[in-house]
Amino acid sequence: MQGIVKKPIITEKATFASEGRNAFTFEVERKANKLEIKKAVEKMYGVHVTEVRTQNYGGGKSSMKYTNKGIVEQRSKQWKKAIVTVADGETIDLFNNY
Which of 1, 3, 51, 72 qualifies as a cystine partner to 85, CB 3.0-4.6 A? Predict the structure, then answer.
């Protein structure tokens, strides 16, 4: 289960969501489903998860490189983001726990 949650995403938008709605954002394994993500977060941080939302990113045409062999298209990195909402009164301390 440790391999499912890769790292927390700490941006301005994610920090605002964690303070206001108890929603924490993580980069997760691409093939993990919502139930696996829920179990992994509950085990890692000792909280009760009420909702999990996921989003897939990347995989499209990203950039073009000019090489000796001509123009080469490079695909963007594929990754998955999970927004995990925890129960009221509970929180995840991302700075000391991770």
Answer: 51
What is the domain-level CATH number for residue 44?
A: 3.30.70.330
Q: Is residue 64 part of a domain?
A: yes
Percentage of the chain beyond pLDDT 70 is: 96
Domain assignment present for residue 31? The answer is yes
Q: Determine if residue 89 is left, alpha or beta; phi over 0 gives left, psi from -120 to 50 gives alpha, anything else beta.
A: left
Helices (H), the chain: 12-21, 34-45, 94-97
Model pTM score: 0.82
Note down the domain range covering 56.
Answer: 5-88
